[in-house]
Amino acid sequence: MTDRATAGTAMLDALKAELERFGEANDAVNTERPRRMLNITRDTGEFLSVLVRAMVARRVLEIGTSNGYSTLWLAEAARDIGGSVTTVELSESKIQLASENFARSGLLPFIRSIHDDAGRVLERSEADAFDLVFLDSERPEYPGWWPNLRRVLRPGGLLVVDNATSHPEQMAPFVALVKADAGFTTSLVPVGNGEFLAVKAQR
Known about the structure:
Layout: H1 3-29, H2 42-55, E1 59-63, H3 69-80, E2 84-89, H4 92-105, E3 111-115, H5 118-124, E4 130-135, H6 142-152, E5 153-161, H7 168-179, E6 184-189, E7 195-200
Parallel strand pairs: 1-2, 1-4, 2-3, 4-5
Antiparallel strand pairs: 5-7, 6-7
């Protein structure tokens, strides 16, 4: 690794650590969900990074950007395999925070940020458009999004859903829907707040 690459990695690591501290401090004093960052845990970020690399997932979709912490883990891995991340967030204030963090990260060329409703973005997306989808957004919306989530994921693609063990009651309707689909194989992984994984069958 060159000195420049080493410096870039150190800068990115420092930014991740800063965002972890910021997220924890912010969420400790804000009880209203729209004002909370609700970031993934560091071990979840490491897990996502491994999944992207293992699957050679060059086309990643993230639904729920928040301040961009999870996006950085996904984008760093996608960059290293010649890919990129499309991330979707409805909150204007969070999109602004994320944009500032992306600009500082050195990963901006590998991130496409969309300020829109995730349901509309999914409807507009082409079939088989993504290798990996990370879902960390409004849980009650997931069942309604499922037909398009299913459609935009390529055969052999992976869906990863956060908060599977931290919010099991809210996740239950969606998990049941995916498990009932013969075209998917699922697993619950006890990393961070719990990751529900679903792999789409090859044609």
